[in-house]
Specification:
alpha+beta; five-stranded mixed beta sheet; 14 helices
């Protein structure tokens, strides 16, 4: 029988993979790559996420990578904005395209009834080919003449989040800089077309090519993709190299994990074939709920008694959102914090409170009373965080218990 890993063992493995057990001596670009990106719909949150993970993190380094187009802000996993390396954005975007379409249709399906999404994608690509950054409303207005049916919000979201691979350009996401989301073609921004879709794995059924209309709209990422069906799979069985990369990279950053966790992180269906292809080179465990967990054989799985330092996590941190089953890091009664945009505090590796900034002060609200030792550690780490966020102007911390 596979070894059973309880929540504490999984917690320490997660902290190690997420660079939260010990701060890492990694270049910022390598850290973003290892983490498979950082969720970033709140533009400043990745800075806190990397500060909590890297030993000598300077925010200007991440801003520089963004300006230099080595990292990009784009819709990817779960149809959320992620900060990922340029290489990952180009390599992964086509594999996520069917999911992105389906998720936008899940909200606006009625508005796109009868709309040929491939034609809409072609019009959007022609518009964006000039490399001019545009807001979502500007894109919608420019396309509304030919596509008057969908409401502007629906039309903008379909183009920006699903049909056309796009990047949000600086100054959005630059350290301590405001600015709305202005979008430009990812291929134009990076000077290279996105990688073509690989052939998907044996989990994908065979069948005819889907039509381009809304009923088949989960198919290809745009025009010129023959033989791609509504589920995004190729018309015949074959390898799924991008899927296998996603599985390996996910396990390196989040394992041990179940296939349901992988699906929850990526939003992508159809990875069972990639998992099956990789299974001979993976190791298997069970969690305390009886689920099978897979992992890379040489990945770190620290002793469950390894001390875990206090860590402050930003809103929507993937250390929580990267799993379908989150008991390894947060109690069931507090699971909602991970999707509500709350910034959370880890004590002994588990969610023990929330935090926010108030006039330069890091204000902590505990979910339960903290021990004297834990409180002292929270104050010390919170002071360092306050100094980081204020660039040395304020190092105050305030702790309150949950009411």
């Amino acid at each position: 029988m596979p070894t059973v890993l309880d929540d504490r063992a999984l917690n320490r493995a997660t902290l190690a993979r997420q660079l939260l057990l010990d701060r890492a001596d990694l270049p910022v670009l390598d850290a973003v790559s290892h983490l498979c990106g950082l969720q970033a719909q709140e533009p400043q949150e990745p800075y806190t996420g990397l500060w909590s993970r890297l030993r000598a993190f300077a925010p200007g380094e991440l801003s520089g990578l963004l300006v230099d187009r080595k990292v990009v802000r784009t819709h990817l996993m779960r149809r959320t904005v992620h900060l990922v390396t340029a290489e990952d954005a180009l390599a992964w975007r086509a594999r996520h395209a069917p999911m992105l379409r389906q998720r936008v249709l899940g909200t606006y399906r009625a508005e796109f009834a009868g709309v040929d999404l491939d034609e809409l994608a072609a019009d959007a690509a022609e518009l964006a080919s000039d490399g001019e950054p545009r807001t979502m409303p500007e894109l919608a207005r420019a396309l509304a003449g030919r596509w008057p049916g969908p409401a502007p919000r629906a039309l903008g979201e379909m183009v920006v989040a699903a049909l056309l691979p796009m990047a949000q350009v600086p100054p959005r996401g630059v350290w301590r800089t405001g600015g709305g989301a202005r979008n430009v073609s990812l291929a134009v921004w990076l000077g290279r077309e996105i990688d073509p879709p690989g052939r998907h794995g044996p989990d994908a059924p065979t069948g005819p090519t889907a039509p381009g209309g809304v009923n088949g709209a989960a198919g290809g990422a745009g025009p010129g993709r023959p033989g791609v069906r509504a589920d995004g799979a190729a018309g015949s069985h074959g390898s799924d190299p991008v899927g296998r990369v996603l599985v390996r990279r996910y396990l390196a950053a989040f394992g041990p994990a179940a296939t349901a966790d992988l699906r929850a992180w990526s939003g992508v269906a159809g990875l069972p074939g990639a998992v099956a292809a990789l299974r001979p080179e993976l190791v298997a465990f069970r969690d305390s709920r009886g689920r099978e967990l897979l992992d890379l054989p040489d990945a770190p799985r620290p002793d469950p008694d390894t001390p875990a330092p206090v860590r402050f996590l930003p809103a929507f941190d993937n250390a929580l959102l990267g799993y379908q089953e989150r008991g390894r890091i947060v109690a069931d009664e507090h699971r909602g914090l991970s999707v509500a945009g709350e910034r959370v505090l880890l004590v002994d590796g588990r969610v023990a409170g929330t935090w926010r900034t108030d006039a330069g002060t890091v204000a902590v609200t505990g979910l339960s009373p903290l021990s004297r030792a834990a409180r002292a550690e929270v104050v010390a780490e919170g002071e360092r965080l306050a100094l980081f966020l204020s660039e040395g102007e304020c190092g105050r911390v305030r702790i309150a218990e949950a009411g």
